[in-house]
Design brief:
- There is one protein chain.
- The chain is α/β, with parallel strands linked by helices.
- The protein is built from 5 helices and 7 strands, in the order βαβαββααβαββ.
- The relative contact order is 0.24.
Length: 167
């Protein structure tokens, strides 16, 4: 089962996903995809880990997310935007190559026996990016969001903390 949770910044995606996970499992996993860019970012990640209670098992994986998911587990993947950033940076901003690699990795999730709650951002709903790299990333994010949503069993759009079922 794949749940796709999307929305804008601070729309309540993570809170919704975490609450869903704890209703489905007494010991859910939290898979963080963020690359650790500096000490300040590391401190922020550590703070997020401490904010989750003892029920949670934290995993960090920058790109190969399918390989760290345990059979029959409930996993929150947070988030697609940071995960895609890792591909985008590593391919030197090549949208097509990043999208191809991300789709290959995401499609591995479809073969797993696990409940996956994957969080993403709808970055194309805001201000038009003023830089070429920003526009490229917005395209990458939009295309990957479409791929994930098409393959998800359920999709939820978060708006101001309210879940709106879209699939």
């Amino acid at each position: 089962m794949i749940y796709y949770i999307t929305g804008g910044e601070r729309s309540g995606k993570s809170n919704y996903a975490q609450n869903l996970a704890t209703t489905l499992s007494q010991k859910p996993y939290y898979l963080a995809t963020s690359r650790i860019w500096d000490d300040n970012h590391r401190q922020r990640i550590d703070r997020h880990i401490k904010d989750r209670d003892e029920r949670w098992i934290s995993i960090e994986e920058e790109k190969e997310i399918a390989k760290v998911i345990i059979d029959k587990s409930v996993v929150v993947i947070d988030c697609v935007t940071l995960w895609l950033t890792n591909f985008f940076v590593d391919t030197e901003n090549d949208v097509e190559k990043s999208l191809s690699l991300a789709k290959i990795e995401f499609d591995k999730l479809l073969t797993l026996n696990a409940t996956i709650i994957i969080i993403s951002n709808e970055i194309g709903m805001g201000v038009h990016a003023t830089t070429e790299i920003g526009r490229k990333f917005t395209e990458l994010q939009g295309w990957m969001n479409q791929h994930i949503a098409a393959n998800a069993d359920k999709a939820i759009l978060m708006v101001s903390g309210i879940p709106v079922p879209i699939k």
